[in-house]
Amino acid sequence: MRTSTLQACVPPGIATTSFGIRLAYSGGNLGKSVVWSAFESFLLFYLVRFAGLDPLVAGGLLAILMFAAAGADVVVAYFADRHGRPDALARLILLGAPLGGIGFWLIFAARLDGPAIVAAVILCRVGYSLCDIGHNTLLVRVATSPRDATSVSGLRMIFSAAGTAIVGLASAHILSIADPSDQRAAFAGCALAGGALYIATLMAAAWATRGIPAPRTATRRIGPAAMLSALWHTPAYRRLLSLVAVQVALVPMFARALPFFGFAVHGDPGWGGSALLVITIAQASSLPAWIMLGRALPPQSTLTAANMLMIVAMLLLVTLPQAGPVPLALIGIAQAGMNIAIWALLATSIRTGMAAGSTAEALPMGLFLAVVKGATGIGNLLFASAIAGHDWHCTSCAPSTSFLLAAIGLPLLGCVAILAMNSGPPYKRTT
């Protein structure tokens, strides 16, 4: 029988972390969500409408940076595991938080244009990637049981929803300003606040978790091939990567389209900010229900229910335009369930693998984040291709068919694919 090549174990009877630690750790998602939501929902629109970049150039830039970040995640995570420093994750956060926060502000700085914006985007992405590895891998230490994984994932989603709400409110306000110079100044001011929030919340998370012991690791050095082989022979982890790749690439396409959808369909790009706020409020309000459901049902069932709800929401958006905010609220509720299920599956699968003999703590998270960012890059390219044929300076032009198919059709396709992938029998470990 094949056994894992990573020989070590997690000590039995690990103590549950306190609520204060969980809260401070989860608060890091507030700052991360501000940056991620701005990148996902409004940065492409900003680069096209305000920085003057061609849609394909802007989308290609964001995709390339995502692919580069994906590769960097795996490399950084591997070396964090290989060297086995207990404070390695905190060091990644302490290095990455200032880079990400300052870079985020510089992207929207009032007098920054062209190449300077590109450099700022790269700086922000580098910092974000370092923090992403450090902060997300700490989830494995904070959530010491499947039950803890669900509750901590729920807390993280609450803070993430708050961060997304901040972006929605800020973008709705900024895009409603008529004077261009005032609008650029508002972009810069809000970005400065967002960058400061990013730095503060992640620093607080690193400080709060400093006393949690790191899992014991093997004394011998393990090569990358052996680590990746051990992960590859964990079918549940392989399935999780496949699920998250489809979910991240296709399902958020409507969220990426919000300001463009508002501009093309409603004649008001500020509609995207208001829509994002509705989605976020519904997402945050539904989190307690999803957490209770997650404690009663396995994460796979939660993921299925959330994707079915997303299908209903997208169909209502198409068939009942008069439904108002109802489809948007359902999208937010579905997103909450998807996120809780995915993160609970991830934390549980990594801790189970470690208990079975894997020393890899950061690498599974790094590989997961690499898939997330690679899939996001693909999604950005698909969406940039869909909007390239539309004149985004023409307020009276009807939206193109390719744009509507990307915004509505691709999320539906993604949900159907996830339901099909998630409906099979559980994998058994390869022997």
Automatic annotation (TrEMBL):
GO terms for cellular component: plasma membrane. GO terms for biological process: carbohydrate transport. Keywords: Membrane, Transmembrane, Transmembrane helix. It comes from the Bacteria. Gene3D superfamilies: MFS general substrate transporter like domains. The chain crosses the membrane at residues 34-52, 58-80, 92-110, 116-134, 155-178, 184-208, 240-265, 271-291, 303-320, 326-346, 367-389, 401-421. One of its GO terms (molecular function) is symporter activity. SUPFAM superfamilies: MFS general substrate transporter. InterPro entries: MFS_2, MFS_trans_sf. Signal peptide: none annotated. Belongs to the sodium:galactoside symporter (TC 2.A.2) family. This is Na+/melibiose symporter-like transporter. The lineage of its organism: Bacteria, Pseudomonadati, Pseudomonadota, Alphaproteobacteria, Sphingomonadales.
